[in-house]
Amino acid sequence: MISAKELKNSHVVRRDLLASLVVFLVALPLCIGIAVASGVPAELGLVTGIVGGIVVGLLPGSRLQVSGPAAGLTVLVYEAVKQFGLGTLGPIVLAAGLLQVVLGAARFGRWFRAISVSVVQGMLAGIGLVIVLGQVYALADTEQPGSGLSNLAGLPRLAARIVSDGEAMTAFGLGAGTIAVLLLWPKLPAAVRLVPAPLAAVGLATAVAALAGLRPAVVDVNGLLHAIDPPGGAEFGRLADVAVIGTVLAFALIASAESLFSAAAVDRMHDGPRTDYDKELVAQGVGNTLCGALGALPMTAVIVRSAANVQAGATTSLSRVAHGVWLLLFAALLPAAIGVIPLAALAGILVHAGCKLVPAKEFGPLWREHRGEAVLLAVTALAIVVTNLFEGVVLGLLLAVIKSAWETSHVQLTTRELTGGRVVVALSGNATFLRLPRILEQLERLPQDQPMELDLTGLRHLDHACRVALENWARRHNDAEIDPVTIRR
After folding, report:
1. Which residue, among 142, 134, 146, 143, has the nearest Cα to 167 in the 3D structure?
2. Span 298-310, pLDDT tens digits
3. pLDDT tens-digit profile of 139-166?
4. Cβ contact 440:472 at 8 Å
5. Under a CB-based contact definition with an 8 Å cutoff, are residues 336 and 221 in contact?
6. What is the pTM of this model?
7. Phi and psi based region of residue 223 (left: phi greater than 0; alpha: psi -120 to 50; beta: remaining)
8. How far apart are CA 384 and CA 393, in angstroms?
9. Count of alpha carbons within 13 Å of 89, Cβ hemisphere only?
10. Which of 293, 262, 246 is nearest to 72 (CA)?
11. Distance CA 154, CA 146 (A)
12. Residues forming beta bridges with residue 411, ordered by sequence position
């Protein structure tokens, strides 16, 4: 929240308003591009950006992270619109927002920090791969085949079309040029980099298309009020569908995890007040509830815009609220400006954003130091490409739980022989069913012709399966003429 004392400080207000302009220029092309890639009207991306700035910006939680439509939800939104229709998107987003509010009010926000980082990275990597595989078709103004694997299999045909079709080659040239600008922009002088790279890339592509007399496919514009379509009773009735309920859960889980991981990253960038995770989860839920009521895209906190906000010198929530006001003014006063942007340029923005979601540089060190985490990341990402976002994330979470259970169930078996020939077998650590085959294999190699004692006092945990198996082993192990194995607990 913005305090009255901060608003009276002209230096703080001036600095935050300047930061808000930077965030606005970064957010504008991303809001439009994400909406187009999600299969919804471009204006709905701006609606989500406006709500994320003005509404979420005024709520407590995080002071500096900026919310809006995110590339991380593009794939899920596209699949939801394709499967259930645009009219059902609003109820899905609204229900996901209400679920976030409930989770935040119940103080579940902090528990999202317990989700494996590798699963989140794998989720983002999988989303990035799906975005790239889909938007590379939009670079050439070509409709994508469908799923991630279909898009991958269709790349040779796409390449052949770009080479043989003049219109496809023109569009691809604009998209590739947009990506080139995004890659080269950080290397230019600081004075040039005052203009955010996404805005510069889209602006240059639009200017080149206009000056060269090219006629690429452009964004379809119908006006902000025309795009807003609050859902009715029939659309809300779809929430009884099991498949729709699964999508609501996926929206809520992924949006919450991405927002709270973003908050943790933003907190590391500044020295101001830390994020209250429960309040931030409520704020995100309120924003998504309103977006759903307006029939707009879901929102999350977005690290690209949040980092731009911090780097521009923002210190209060004023910057993120003002950026929402600038988006509203642009959408209301200059809607025609959206209609001249080539779709290939927006696809280039999304391809670049998708590539940045794939942690290619971090994977090598992770493989060398924590091979299990690297496998978890890769499996989650590939599962998303092969199946879908929800199933891929569920598989990743399941594997993370199994991996954690396996690593924490360390058990050590030692033997020592006492005077008189009695053997003491001691178990220490955590004995769970995951380690049971190895435990029994070692026990069954022990001699059967000596008195034996099984010492379980060193175990921190002994689950039911292990207890029953050890008792059965103790009863049957020794020969008939030797005393049964005794158990000391």
Report:
1. 142
2. 999 887 788 888 8
3. 888 887 776 778 888 888 889 988 888 8
4. no
5. yes
6. 0.73
7. left
8. 7
9. 29
10. 262
11. 10
12. 429
